[in-house]
Design goal:
CATH superfamily of the largest domain: FAD/NAD(P)-binding domain
Shape: globular
Number of helices: 16
Bound molecules: flavin-adenine dinucleotide
Oligomer: single chain
CATH class of the largest domain: Alpha Beta
Structural class: alpha+beta
Number of domains: 3
Largest sheet: 7 strands, mixed
Distance between the termini: 43 Å
Number of strands: 22
Length: 604
Amino acid sequence: MAVEQPNLLVAERFAIKLERIVGKLIFFHHRNTKVSGLARRRMPLLRDYLRLMSNPKKHRRAKPFRRQKGQQDSVRAAVGPVAVVEVRMPAKWTEDDEKIREALLSALAWPSERLGEFRVQRKNLDARQREVKAVWTMEAAERGAKLPIDTPATVSFDPLPEDAKRVHIIGAGPAGIFAALQCILNGSRPVIIERGQPVRQRRRDLVQIFREHTVNPDSNYCFGEGGAGTYSDGKLYTRSHKRGDIRAALELLVQHGADEDILVEAHPHIGTNKLPGIIESMRETILEAGGIIRFGCRLLDFKSSDGSVRELTWLDLDTQIKCRESCGHLILATGHSARDIFHLLHEKGLQLEAKPFAMGVRIEHPQSLIDEIQYRSKERESWLPPASYRLVCQASGRGVHSFCMCPGGIIAPCATEDGEVVTNGWSPSKRNNPFANSGMVVQLMQEDWEQHGHTGPLGGLLFQSTVEKACWKAAGETQRAPAQRLVDFLKGIQSKDLPETSYVPGVVSVNLHEVLPPLISKALREGLQTFVERMPLFMSEQAVLVAPESRTSSPVRIPRDAESLSHPELRNLYPCGEGGGYAGGILSAALDGIRVADAAEKST
Ligand SMILES: Cc1cc2nc3c(=O)[nH]c(=O)nc-3n(C[C@H](O)[C@H](O)[C@H](O)COP(=O)(O)OP(=O)(O)OC[C@H]3O[C@@H](n4cnc5c(N)ncnc54)[C@H](O)[C@@H]3O)c2cc1C
């Protein structure tokens, strides 16, 4: 769920109440009859009018009310033996089947005896009003009629023939895994080369980060089976609009053990405790069909001639033996943290582009405080999930926004080598930790890192690395992270002490204005000030900034042809997922993996 801070004017709240009363009157009057377009439009006009009275300047810029595509008419009776309606009901009703039925009947404007089977297509929450509303899209059939079958598809991954063509995939993150599954469906044998360890073994290396403050450069929070998203909140949102593709990718996750709820939740997430099992199950599917996975193998180099990659060289990290293999198709799905790969491509003189990205800090509050802000109540009711937020504003001429918010989560140490500190966040499926953390980041452009002397396509990457090293130094050259209370950050003074945080390696009090580049800390201060003005409770003594949040997205783009999806200079090299700059999360990386596997198939 991502609920926005409402900030409704008093007059608007009054208008909403009035609308509801007027709406009910119209509803009762016109129940089971057709309502004219004018009557249907009257309610929003009333709200608009009151908005105008309370804030005429703002309203002048507002767009006139238009019916939204797909918006349901709760007054006119739904027609047809199967109907789809939007049902708005108090969130607490979702715990009571009778109440759900009642709300559905009211939205359909059907008498009780007309309603047969029904189900939820999409679940959302609207916390903009004092009473939190569940907003469900529901499908209902008349008694005697049947709802169309809607069980998640199960894809069968048949064993590959002996002579199946090989496709090499570097990286077993979401992009690499979904590319491998798609290769199998296309009849090709995926050969995955992954520098990290299988998902369970990877855990031992994560523990070393907490206990020993040492980072294994091949197995950590970013590297290893499942990629960067394995020990994450497992949020599965994407800005992609190809709903069919999204549904297919989500169904594949369900087929491998994810809860079916992800198919209906508007903001689905899986949770760190469940992701490893799903990833293992996908691995089994790949292996059973005849795919090959080589863990603990780091791609070192490749040879190319006549515009094609011909041979790969990787290091077997166990034996320290360099292995070579000829290569027909290379899907490069190495993620945004594989700096060695960016350097390798750059050294080979291949085209790369600097890409805007964002950097800043993680901010952490008690979860109860975020619940109080969003639900306007000291205690979160049992029917409400731990609240999240999404914040965005302009500060010092650049965008400042929250990023990858983890309700009930933990701040994770995500460095990929010693000598740097990197943070990100994860949550268990129940999101039941006492803290809420989120990235709070500032948009950066090429001219920003050029000002700091970092030029060329890898300029952003070098700047990112400088900030991570500065944070490591400032906090004592371990995996402890530099931190500051929000209150003190806004005043520009070092905190005398720090509140308890979820960051297990520990935090060290510093003045972040002296550690982060001024262009970041200045915009961050302005942005946070704006957010505090919008949500005064956000400014809590318990709120703490932990730095840096630096790996939001790739600072480099590996270009590819829009049609063939291959690199302009190497026709069988397919940059894929977040590392290439073609995804910004688990689901979009997975979708890109599927696309690229199809493109590789088409080229043969
Ligand atoms: C802690 C954390 C929490 C996150 N939470 C979320 C979330 O809730 N929702 C969300 O959508 N996104 C989240 N993300 C981001 C998400 O994980 C990434 O967007 C996604 O994993 C990108 O997928 P990918 O397959 O492109 O790359 P990656 O997942 O980065 O996978 C790349 C893989 O390539 C391997 N590799 C790298 N170099 C080499 C090499 N030289 N040889 C062999 N193998 C190599 C790596 O080991 C890695 O396994 C989170 C990230 C982190 C770190």
